[in-house]
Specification:
single chain, 137 residues, mainly alpha, globular
Length: 137
């Protein structure tokens, strides 16, 4: 499991690079209104990062648990998105909790919240999204 966790951290770095790069490209060259720059661009960049991290999970980290079929890929992708949405809610809640309890700087709160939500994301992927299933499921 530790080897998968290390790969999961690497996948997170790759996702952050993709997310940030797509956001920069969109806001620098394509989108300039408030809505497109602050709502649409982050949504697109975030989903781009999620897609890249999912592909890394599917074909590298948990490749021995998947069926390499279109339906399996898409079904797990929906579950992965749901797990990351729950992780985002957890991150925001934990960030707020740490801020309210300890009054740390927002960056410190965010780093701590990222650690908690990252651990949740790993275990959600390990135990829910990429659990080995029979072909009939």
């Amino acid at each position: 499991m530790m080897q998968n966790f290390i790969k999961f951290v690497i996948r997170g770095v790759a996702g952050a690079v993709v997310d940030t790069s797509v956001l920069w490209i969109l806001t620098t060259y394509f989108f300039h209104s408030y809505f497109t720059k602050y709502v649409l661009s982050p949504a697109i960049s975030s989903e781009s990062g999620i897609a890249v991290t999912y592909v890394i999970c599917y074909f590298w980290i948990w490749k021995h648990r998947v069926h390499n079929e279109k339906s399996d890929f898409l079904k797990r992708f929906l579950h992965y998105n749901l797990a990351l949405l729950i992780s985002l809610v957890l991150k925001i809640g934990f960030l707020d909790l740490v801020n309210e309890l300890f009054h740390f700087h927002i960056i410190i709160c965010n780093i701590l919240a990222l650690c908690v939500s990252g651990i949740f994301s790993f275990f959600a992927s390990e135990k829910f999204v990429f659990v080995k299933r029979s072909k009939k499921q």
